[in-house]
Amino acid sequence: MSGKIVNKVANSQLKTIDLEEFYPQGTRTIIDIKDWLFQELILKETDFREHLKKHKWEQYKNHYVALVCSSDAIIPSWAYLLITTYISPFAKKIIAGSLRELETSIFQDIISNFNIEDYKNKPVIIKGCTNKPIPETAYIQLIEKLQPIVKSIMFGEACSTVPLIKNKK
User: Fold this and answer.
1) For 115-143, what is the mean pLDDT?
2) pLDDT digit string, tens, across residues 51-71
């Protein structure tokens, strides 16, 4: 016995993916349009358009924006589209929906552009502990993308992973 300590993990083909590393910087903002409605319930087109013209849209520069209406008003689709015409020169991304839906949409873009070539025929650990709000859907989409090409997928930390798949090749 030589007494030399060998780091088997560092020397293995094991690849780790930490989705937190892909978390894009930028403020997440909710714009609630109820305040632009008559009695927070009725969209009067002329008044609504006037609110949009007066609003300071540049404050959303480089923001990820979720458009919502927290009152029980029925909002026509064109209202969200019209808001988008004002905010799109400034915001990084705009959706109609909650902050959770916004994060899901952001990560859909990230996963669809994720290069999987480095993971071909390799064992993969998808890191589980994060400090940022990574949506569950992002992990699901990542697994869907990796499963056909990897040797195996595990979830968690290198010291305690949960095996998810092992491809027989």
Assistant:
1) 92
2) 999 999 999 999 999 999 999
Return all residues near 14 (Cβ < 8 A) that are at least 6 apart: 122, 123, 124, 125, 158
Task: Look up the domain containing 156 and give its range.
Answer: 8-24+105-166
Q: Identify which of 124, 26, 37, 9 has the alpha carbon closest to the alpha carbon of residue 66.
A: 26
Last residue of a domain, one of 91, 113, 139: 91
DSSP, residue by residue, 73-90? ----HHHHHHHHHHHTTT
Residue pair 138/111 in contact (Cβ under 8 Å)? The answer is yes
pLDDT, mean of residues 108-127 = 94
Q: What is the pTM of this model?
A: 0.82
Question: Of 68, 74, 129, 145, whose CA–CA distance to 102 is shortest?
Answer: 68
